[in-house]
Amino acid sequence: MAKVTPLVPIDCVWTDSHCHLDAPEFDADRADVLARARAAGVAMLVLPAVQVAHFDTVRRLAHEYGLAYALGIHPLCVDRADDGDLDRLAQALQAHRSDPRLVALGEIGLDHFVPGLDRARQAHFYAAQLKLAREHALPVILHVRRSADGLLQHLRRTEVPGGIAHAFNGSDAQAAQFAARGFKLGFGGAMTFERALQIRRLAASVAGDVPVLETDAPDIPPQWLYVKAGERTAQPPARNEPSQLPQIAHTLAALRGWSLEETAARTTANVRAALPRLAAL
Ligand SMILES: [Zn+2]
Predict the structure, then answer these.
(1) Which of 45, 62, 197, 220 is most buried by a 10 A CB count?
(2) CA distance linking residue 115 with residue 145, whole number of Å
(3) How far is the CA of 34 from the centre of ligand 1 (A)?
(4) Distance between alpha carbon 255 and the CA centroid of its chain, in Å?
(5) How many alpha carbons lie under 13 Å from residue 160 in its C-beta half-sphere?
(6) Ion ligand 1 nearby residues (CB, 5 A)
(7) If you measure from the C-alpha of residue 260 to the centroid of ligand 1, how many angstroms do you get, rounded to a whole number?
(8) How far apart are CA 21 and CA 16, in angstroms?
(9) How far, in Å, CA of 15 to CA of 272, rounded?
(10) Contact at 8 Å (CB) between 14 and 268?
């Protein structure tokens, strides 16, 4: 009889592959937020930076709480950044190149959804940061919003060691191209909405070694935390937090027909494959 290798039995230990724990929304109760995440089984979080001013914070949080971090300049932050910031990123990558908790370059990318952004400026920062990722042999954490083709074009020019396309909401063909380049796709709160037909279809149909789970907290609250626009005056907008990850994972498990244990094992293995340094932590 053929020997079947069981998946690593890690009893629902979850990895939040994308969480902005450094965000000011968590200033008042960050330690509690993390304690709730740990109590829910979320053992590891990846904290991507969005701007130079946060580099020290994500690194400090990662070391203080035993987490992982990434350094990068987010496309929605490039308006306030300049080439000096790219130099500062290069210096930080150099200074911390032996830091085992620095697992990727990110969050970087292109946002073609938010109106009024300077696309050429975004492309300049994205291209420069891909070159840094290649130089440092680091995977990248990508922000993809209506920009999958543009991101892929740059990746053809500047090959990097894969990474994660976070909060992915592209076409099947775009998903296949990212996967062919060694990228995992991030699924989170958006997947929990029944009307998110394309995201749900992707979550159900991509190869089993592709999906990773994320909260993107404090952003992208799942359906059960979401406050409708008309009700927002009455109550503050919902804050997402990493303890929501196992609940979000239920949706992925249901869509794929995986047990929760299998969902935890596979998605954690996928994050580790995308971010090899994470596996050593
Ligand atoms: Zn993000």
Answers:
(1) 45
(2) 12
(3) 17
(4) 20
(5) 34
(6) 107
(7) 25
(8) 11
(9) 9
(10) yes
